[in-house]
Design brief:
The protein is α+β, with helices and mostly antiparallel strands. It has 28 helices and 18 strands.
């Protein structure tokens, strides 16, 4: 990395724009950056760091601090522009921090966001912008330099005060600095990962042991008394012997439970025998008690039968009389029916008499029939009058219909006149609808012609935007391909140069004794050339050449692909920039017509055209409906004219029809006045006569029915008396009193049958021999036998429960023991894994006994880096100290602290090794300088070998004597051998005499300024 130019504007103490030409300063190899205290020497280095990383070093980036100069005008923005070469690329980084600026409107200030710009210089196209993204620029710069901001500030901007503190610091402080520089977080992550694995494995083992102990507790609970004979193991979860102790204890518990199971089986057999004997005794006592109770019950039933014998005889006699009365029952029913019919006929006769006129109340059947015939003759004479009355009602209906037709025709004429009055307006409106639909159809055709080109432009704009993205990606790919081709070309040239440099050794490899050399022609080869270190053979060179050609082919392919994309992009741009008239009311999309339209603008145009086309199409679609509406209106116009003429003709015809009906109704009314009599109408008079005829007919029928019912009652009385005498009853009333219905007869028969069945059953049971024999024995005692049986049953159940519990306990113990054994087997690999991980975690954490120096893994790696730094620093320290001092790394422990990051200095004058904290001020300076330069070399190699062509050393030279200062400057001057330039930041006056190339920072009232000095010449 080489710095070329730095431009500062309103940055730190610099109120105006200042420019630093590093190319002019670096031409001498060693240059001095000096100035009074507070002038801004360190601000120059801050600007370099800010330009690369967007932040200044260390505490100077603390919250609340501002990079903007207080001397700068309000309208001059703070800006840093840094031009450098890194990784073979010439870059320019421009950064502006977040800063206030005057508002464009009104007073006051507004905060402007931070801005960044990265450009690259090419021989063909000059400066080209690469990115404006803070993140992309930071990632690109970090990738090219290969160092973070902290590493850059420690390696390129060498802060001597930090390294002096590093020399005197303890192991923990050194570890923090080295860890930040060499990024050993991955090793710390390995430590944390192993520690986490150990915690997880330990938790798994502890969880498994807790599960085993839980199973042991369940075994103890299941074993019952057997578990109390031997206590549980006292090991805790995680201890090694826990699993084996639990398995042994479980085996003892299972043995005790098995012994108790055998005892329970013997006790159950004895209880079963006693229970069987008690059951047989109980069955015998129960049978004796049953027979004795059966015989006693039979005696009680026999006594009850004798008590109910009189009731049985009474029922038998009542049933016999009822069966004889059943022979008289039909005659009784016939007499009752005749009596009921006579009473009904008499009641009907009395009702009809109340409705007859008084002169006919006591009339006979013949007189009533004559009066009925007279009324029927009068009713027949009213039939002609009824026809006349019905015709009169028809005439009233016809006249009402004529009036309704007249009113309907009047309304039709008025409605037709009202509608025809507005016919001209309706006709004109429908014609206008047709004309509007025709115009909309024309408009829709025009919009359709504009919509297709607009859609094609929108598709082209979308392709253009997509091709722009692909062009950027292809450009990046081309840049990467060019860089890869250039690197491959340089690699090939380097290998070719190295091969040519050692070509003599390659030719010497083909020499043979006695064969002439192809170069000198001699057959003697006394001293053939030997291949040197890093010799390149022909195969390696050809492989590099093939890689170079493949890279060139990839670059050409990337260029062709980019060319094709650009051609397609140009075509898409041309298609997207065609002229397009704006839709009505869319003046906001003027850019669409100028060829610079975005996809959003073209989408707005297409949307507007689509909406207008749809609206025009909708209006045009109404043309057919408008024409049909016009035709329907014309048909309705003709129909209404015809309907009005028809109504006028019907009104003239109704006048003559109304007069004829009035004449016919007057003649009928004269005839009906005579026929109605005192009634309101002929129909009412006829109804009155019909009711009178009906009353006379009903009265005659009721009188005839009463006479017939009296005759039937007299005949029934004779039949009943004869039937009662034949059945053996003195009177019909006696037969009626003995009559019983079927249900009562069945009940009497059932009671008789029940008595006889009970008598037969008692006789059978009295004949049983076993019952009589049981009655001769003493009374049975089943309760005592039941008590003995219950006692033996309880003993049996207790024995069975004891056996079941013992069996269940043994089964549960076996199951739990198997689960415990399975869990112990499952935990075996976990225990082994835990032991392995715990051993590794303790080793990397420095707590294991195997780690003799108690060094953590990260400290071990940093110790190796520190050893490299000490070796690189010693090469320069010996020159600065005239060969006296050597820096060595020490991994010895001090006190109770861990070892690994000790740093000692070996004094060749005394031969003793001592701590770096014992060095004097000047010795500390050049030791820290050597350490800084050595650290820069190691970090550079760590960062991928990126060349650091520009270094800065900040302060510390004032503590050196003249001789030591010369030696230090000789060492710094020797850095030019590696094409480096070193800038010394100091205000020591003697350095101004010794270093001709200078950058002076001048402190002024209106802000600091920089001046370049070279060999006595001054430039501002």
């Amino acid at each position: 990395m080489r710095l070329h130019r730095l431009t500062l504007t309103a940055f730190g103490p610099f109120g105006t724009t200042q420019e630093v030409d590093f190319d002019a300063l670096s031409s001498a190899g060693l240059f001095l950056l000096h100035g009074p205290t507070g002038a801004g020497k360190t601000s120059v280095l801050d600007a370099v760091c800010f330009g690369l990383y967007g932040a200044v070093p260390g505490a100077r980036q603390s919250p609340g601090t501002s990079l903007r100069s207080d001397h700068a005008p309000a309208d001059l923005p703070t800006e840093v522009r840094l031009e450098l070469t890194v990784g073979g690329r010439r870059l320019e980084v421009t950064r502006r921090p977040a800063q206030p600026r005057p508002r464009k409107r009104g007073g006051g200030f507004t905060t402007e966001k931070a801005q960044s710009l990265l450009r690259e210089y090419g021989a063909e196209k000059g400066w080209q912008a690469l990115s404006r993204s803070h993140q992309e620029i930071g990632e690109e710069i970090g990738r090219l330099i290969g160092m973070s901001r902290d590493q850059f500030c420690q390696v390129v901007l060498l802060p001597q005060g930090d390294f002096a503190r590093f020399l005197r610091a303890d192991a923990e402080a050194r570890g923090k600095l080295l860890g930040r520089l060499f990024d050993t977080r991955r090793f710390a992550a390995v430590e944390d990962h192993l520690a986490e694995l150990r915690r997880r494995a330990e938790a798994q083992v502890r969880t498994g042991d807790e599960h085993i102990l839980a199973l042991a507790q369940r075994i103890a609970q299941a074993a019952g008394p057997a578990a109390r004979e031997s206590p549980l193991p006292e090991d805790r979860p995680g201890e090694p012997g826990l699993a084996e102790g639990v398995l042994q204890w479980a085996a003892v518990a299972r043995g005790g439970a098995g012994e108790r199971l055998d005892v329970a089986r013997c006790a159950l057999s004895a209880a079963e025998a006693r229970n069987n004997a008690a059951r047989h005794a109980l069955d015998a006592e129960r049978e004796l008690a049953r027979l004795q109770q059966r015989y006693a019950e039979t005696r009680r039933r026999a006594a009850g039968l004798e008590e109910r014998r009189l009731e049985r005889d009474r029922c038998h006699e009542q049933l016999a009389r009822a069966r004889k009365a059943d022979l008289v029952a039909p005659a009784l029913e016939l007499r009752e029916e005749a009596e009921r019919a006579h009473r009904a006929a008499s009641a009907a006769r009395e009702r009809s008499r109340t409705e007859l006129p008084p002169e006919l109340a006591d009339a006979g059947v013949e007189q009533l029939a004559g009066a009925e015939r007279t009324l029927r003759s009068d009713l027949g004479a009213l039939e002609a009058a009824r026809r006349a009355e019905r015709r009169s009602r028809q005439i009233d209906a016809e006249r009402a219909g004529i009036e309704r037709q007249s009113r309907a025709d009047d309304e039709l004429i008025q409605e037709a006149a009202h509608w025809l009055a507005g016919w001209d307006g309706i006709h004109r409106e429908l014609r206008e609808r047709i004309e509007s639909a025709q115009e909309a159809a024309t408009r829709a055709e025009q919009l359709a012609g504009r919509l297709d080109p607009a859609r094609r432009r929108l598709d082209a704009a979308r392709r253009r935007d997509a091709l722009l993205v692909r062009e950027g990606t292809a450009g990046d790919s081309l840049t990467a391909a060019r860089e890869h081709a250039l690197a491959a070309h340089e690699t090939w040239l380097g290998l070719r140069e190295r091969r040519l440099r050692d070509i003599a050794a390659e030719l010497a490899a083909g020499l043979a004794d006695g064969v002439a050399c192809t170069v000198c022609g001699s057959a003697d080869h006394p001293e053939p050339a030997r291949p040197g270190d890093g010799h390149v053979d022909r195969a390696t060179e050809e492989a590099a050449l093939a890689a170079h050609r493949r890279a060139e082919q990839s670059r050409a392919e990337a260029e062709r692909e980019l060319g094709v994309l650009r051609e397609r992009l140009a075509a898409a741009r041309a298609e997207a920039s065609g002229d397009l008239a704006e839709p009505e009311g869319q003046g906001a999309v003027q850019a669409a017509g100028r060829g610079t339209a975005s996809v959003a603008e073209l989408e707005a145009v297409v949307t507007a055209l689509t909406r207008e086309h749809a609206e025009a199409h909708r209006l045009a679609a109404g043309m057919h409906g408008a024409r049909e509406a016009l035709a329907a209106a014309e048909r309705e116009h003709l129909g209404r004219l015809d309907a009005r003429q028809q109504a006028e003709r019907r009104a003239a015809a109704r006048t003559s029809q109304r007069e004829a009906l009035e004449r016919e109704q007057a003649a009928l009314e004269a005839e009906l006045v005579t026929a109605r009599g005192a009634s309101g109408s002929v129909a009412a008079h006829a109804d009155l006569l019909e009711r009178r005829v009906s009353l006379l007919a009903d009265a005659a029928d009721a009188l005839r029915a009463e006479q017939s019912a009296a005759q039937r009652r007299k005949e029934a009385d004779g039949t009943l008396a004869d039937a009662a005498f034949r059945a053996g009853f003195d009177t019909p009333q006696a037969a009626a009193s003995a009559l019983v219905d079927g249900t009562a007869q069945r009940e009497l028969q059932h009671r008789i049958d029940a008595w006889q069945a009970e008598a037969a059953a008692v006789a059978d049971r009295l004949a049983e021999e076993d019952a009589r024999a049981a009655a001769a024995h003493p009374p049975a005692t089943p309760d005592a036998a039941q008590a003995a049986y219950d006692a033996s049953g309880r003993l049996l159940r207790d024995s069975a429960a004891t056996l079941a519990a013992a069996q269940e306990r043994c089964t549960e113990l076996g199951r739990l023991s198997r689960q415990t054994a399975d869990e112990v087997r499952r935990m075996g690999p976990l225990r082994q894994e835990h032991e392995r991980v715990a051993r590794l975690a303790g080793l990397t954490a420095g707590t294991s006994a195997d780690n003799e120096r108690k060094m953590r893994l990260e400290a071990y790696v940093l110790a190796a880096r520190l050893e490299q730094v000490a070796a690189a620093a010693t090469a320069r320290l010996q020159r600065m100290s005239s060969g006296r001092y050597t820096l060595v790394h020490s991994d010895a422990r001090s006190g109770g602290r861990r070892a690994g990051l000790g740093l000692h200095v070996v004094d060749s004058w005394t031969g003793r090794e001592r701590d770096t904290a014992t060095l004097s001020g000047g010795e500390t300076f050049f030791a820290s300088l050597a350490l800084a330069l050595g650290l820069a070399d190691v970090v550079t190699d760590e960062a991928g070998g990126v060349r650091l062509d520009t270094l800065f050393i900040d302060e510390g030279f004032g503590s050196l004597d003249e001789q030591t200062l010369d030696e230090v400057l000789d060492v710094l001057d020797s850095l030019r051998e590696r094409d480096r330039s070193v800038g010394i930041v100091s205000h020591v006056a003697d350095l101004r005499r010794r270093i001709p190339a200078q950058l002076e920072v001048v402190k002024e009232r209106h802000g600091s300024a920089v001046r370049h000095r070279a060999a006595g010449m001054l430039s501002g």
